[in-house]
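About this split. The held-out portion is used to measure sequence recovery: a designer receives only the structure tokens and must propose an amino acid at every position. Recovery is the fraction of positions where the proposal matches the reference. Here is one held-out target exactly as it appears in the evaluation file.
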């Protein structure tokens, strides 16, 4: 093999490895699973105790620069949950402290309390559960510098079901 071929192969490897690492980071962040930190999920508990479990079902470390969960009711933001940047170990889950902010905390608690009761079937429908939407944004960086966001929008009921599901990391963490 001549000298130019060797230099070309080394240059190609130097370019491909960071791009592959960045793409793997995107894939890994998209695989993260959010779950309740206790036995049953409750919006009210999430807002008051500010804890959430995140599961990394992949066999590699996953880093993210933040997760933001926006809660909408009647198309108005009623509260925002934020998770700080971190790295999760392979095939593990961890309970994180989150930061909840709301322009009107008592209104958010009232909506959350009613939605919890309605979704569990123990409270009559007083607020339309179809008007609640949750937007979850996962933030990461490609090659450590290019911002990337993955956004998932769900109804309040779908989010509740997802938070109560079993996951591949239930036996860990």
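Reference sequence for scoring:
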């Amino acid at each position: 093999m001549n000298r130019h071929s060797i230099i070309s192969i080394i240059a190609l490897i130097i370019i491909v490895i960071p791009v592959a690492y960045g793409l793997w980071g995107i894939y890994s962040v998209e695989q993260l699973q959010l779950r309740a930190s206790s036995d049953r999920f409750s919006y009210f508990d999430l807002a008051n105790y500010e804890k959430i479990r995140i599961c990394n079902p992949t066999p590699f470390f996953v880093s993210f620069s933040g997760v933001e969960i926006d809660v909408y009711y009647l198309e108005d933001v009623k509260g925002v949950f934020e998770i700080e940047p971190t790295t999760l170990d392979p095939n593990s889950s961890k309970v994180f402290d989150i930061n909840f902010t709301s322009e009107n905390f008592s209104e958010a608690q009232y909506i959350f309390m009613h939605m919890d009761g309605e979704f569990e079937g123990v409270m009559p429908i007083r607020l339309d559960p179809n008007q609640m939407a949750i937007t979850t944004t996962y933030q990461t960086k490609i090659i450590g510098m290019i911002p990337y966001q993955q956004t998932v929008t769900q109804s309040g009921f779908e989010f509740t079901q997802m938070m109560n599901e079993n996951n591949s990391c239930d036996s860990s963490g």
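Annotator remark: DSSP finds four helices and ten strands in the chain.
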